[in-house]
Amino acid sequence: MSFLREFEAADAAVLAGWVSQAGVAVEPALAVGECWLIAADAAGRPQACLRLRERLGLSLPRYSYHVGRAVHAAAELGLFQSQATLLLGNDHTGDSELADLAHAPDCTEPVAALQVLIMAALARISAQRTRYGERLVVELAGPRDAEGRSPFWQGLGRFFFAGDPAAARQRWGEAWTSHLAALLPRQTLYLPFLDEAAQAAVGRVGAAGRHAAAALAGSGFAYGRHVRIDDGGPIWELNLLQIAC
Questions:
Q1: Which are the contacts of 77, defined by CB distance < 8 A and separation ≥ 6?
Q2: What is the CATH number of the domain that holds 128?
Q3: Per DSSP, which regions of the chain are E strands?
Q4: The whole model's pTM is what?
């Protein structure tokens, strides 16, 4: 059974090993409007964690791709084509976020531990409702191949940034995707222009996020037709206006 406790400075060294697949260091000093929630075992050792953020994109733009659809029809020619599309935007500006959902490799009940944290985050939001946005969003990393490469990145991002995305995230931290977005096209992208592996990766949860996805699904979250711009991983959402506060 997991129980909640406050984040401690000593936790940073523990969480850094498993909180982020990108290798971003965990810092005990958080930005204004952020807090860590820790699920621990009976001995007080961290078993799972998440970071609750009050508002997104108010100082650093937060980018995502909206997964839409474009229809081209000509009745007189008997033609009707419907294509999935990607459009770069800042649709989650002002929303709130659960970030860095992760669990210890030896956690025996990772889904249950993560659900404890999600419920605690929702309780905190309900108690301070005006500080949070209309939606609560969670970015889940997309799939990787056997070599750890993202098929979505191989099919799209690498043509606009020739560097290593993992190294770039290590260098710039969470500002990385804002830098990347400056290099990506603003026009609508037709998904069929990408190779099959990249198309198949859009909106799919990678293996590292399967427990987080199960905990989120059990807590009322659902895929919101937005994906991460680096690996195509899905962004799940919960409408905070529709839950009891």
A1: none
A2: 3.40.630.30
A3: 3-5, 34-40, 46-53, 64-74, 79-89, 96-103, 135-139, 189-190, 222-227, 234-239
A4: 0.91
